[in-house]
Amino acid sequence: MTSSRRMAAAMSALAVVASGLVSAAVIGVTPARADHCDPAEQASQGQQQNNNRQRRNGDQQGQDDQQDQNQDQGQNQDQGQNQDQDQGQGQNQDQGQNQDQGQNDQQNGDQQQGGDQQQGQDQQQSGDQQAPQGGARLLDPAASPEAAPEDEQTASTFSRRRNNPTKTATPVPTRNNPGGGNASPTASPSGSATNDPDEAACADLGPFPEDFVDIRQVAPQRVNARFNRNGSRGTFVSQCGRNENKHNNPDNFIVAPGVSNGAHHLHDYVGNLSTDAFSTDESLAGAGTTCRLGDKSTYFWPVLRNRKVDANDNDPDGNVGQQLTARAVQLQFRGNASSRVVAMPRFLRIITGDAKAATNGPANAKAAWSCTGFQNRITTDKYPLCPRGSLVLRILDFPSCWDGQNTDSANHRTHVVFPDQNGACPQGTRAIPQLRMTLAYSVPQGPSYALDAFPEQKHNPVTDHADFANVMPDRLMQTVVSCINRGRRC
Questions:
Q1: Structure-derived torsion over alpha carbons of residues 347, 351, 356, 358, reported in degrees to the nearest 10
Q2: pLDDT 10s digit of each residue in the chain, 490 long?
Q3: How far apart, in whole angstroms, are the C-alpha atoms of residue 187 and residue 204?
Q4: What is the DSSP string of 303-318?
């Protein structure tokens, strides 16, 4: 009987050791890593590392406790052997007492073992509950349920760029106040050191968590200038679709004519079907269009991407993520607050915003971000976090005071400038219909989307911009002017 008990105690000790090894192996398994280029993931990396350290400490404590238990059990076994020797000397009564004591010690050891194992399991469970799963649980500040992003097709990576080596991360630019911003932007932090080459490639990519703001924390403001009695209050909307046909390229024939990938970021195009780096007045005039009423104008802007999806990850310029198609696109031509408008010349080229505003400064920045239902709250230097059911808005106003002579200029700006704060055009210029692009998007919940940009701009929202070339037939342009000056909505 005594030999059987000693054998059972030894087997129990071996089972404890094996159980501890299995538990340690299971506890060491970490959850699958989500997209490392998701800005929301950057915010949770520090917390995740702390949780991992807590798990490791808990594992070590559990192993130490089990070693102590094994030592105690070994001592109990030695005590049992001494009891056998005492039996051989005729101390039968002491033998029974010592056996009872050994059983009590074994029971106490089992209870202690169970308590230590339960403590380790509680620590592991607590760590799992606190650890964010790849940013997927990081919601907007209102903690509203996650809205499922629209199912979009992945942007293609162009063959002429696919084999280019990945560029080294560039220094973080200093954030400048772009004027009219509601919050003072802060410098983007440099990426933390990591041994994962994929994480290292995204650590300094941008945008960063501080590049986002809850739209409800943005102060309301007046968006449009007040019209006086001489103003032109009408509007005309050119209906050109949402780029459902996926007309995309990284070119810009206005700023970088004849240069493939001159923009280093992908553009969405609506209107003229032929627009690329090599477009000319003649090629645009001879092409088809997605617009109604024969409007062959070209309208284009940088794409927006869902950073929660690993797509386009081989892009050498760092424009990674799933391309999002706008849910709605409005191309509205508006009047002037203090005067009537005149027709813009055909093939007039106009740009708005500055694609390099993060490094150039705020002088030409014209980014305006908002949410549906909050259009009187505009942020110029942050991506908005919208409540559930609200869409992200990009509002891109173009300059509308023409010098009366030129269809372009060396810097693509001086031939058409913006009105002053009261909406009046500077002396020597004429008011033309002002184009306002309003783009609405369904984006993933939380800080997990980004604008395509030049690599050194870190996907800063202040770099939003757009381009337009007027290729309307003259008769259609006269219709636009008539609608605006007569106060009609066309």
A1: 180
A2: 455 555 555 555 545 444 444 343 333 333 333 344 777 776 655 455 445 445 545 455 545 555 545 444 444 444 444 444 444 444 444 444 444 444 444 444 444 444 444 444 444 333 333 333 222 222 333 333 333 333 333 333 222 333 333 333 333 344 444 333 443 333 333 333 344 555 556 668 899 999 999 999 999 988 888 899 999 999 999 999 999 999 999 999 999 999 999 999 999 999 999 999 999 999 999 999 999 999 999 999 999 999 999 899 889 999 999 999 999 999 999 999 999 999 999 999 999 999 999 999 999 999 999 999 999 999 999 999 999 999 999 999 999 999 999 999 999 999 999 999 999 999 999 999 999 999 999 999 999 999 999 999 999 999 999 999 999 999 999 999 999 999 999 9
A3: 12
A4: -EEETTS--STT-TT-
Which residues fall within 8 angstroms of residue 194, CB to CB, at 6 or more apart?
A: 200, 203
**Tokens representing 483?**
């609608």
- Strand locations in 244-403, DSSP E? 248-249, 267-271, 298-302, 304-306, 322-324, 328-334, 349-353, 369-371, 383-385, 392-397, 401-402
Amino acid at 168: T
Cβ distance 403 to 414 under 8 Å? yes
Residues 6+ apart with CB under 8 A from 119: 62
What would the two tokens of residue 278 be?
């090599």
Q: What is the largest CA-CA distance in the chain?
A: 124
What six digits make up the tokens of 345? 């010349």
One-letter identity of residue 320: V
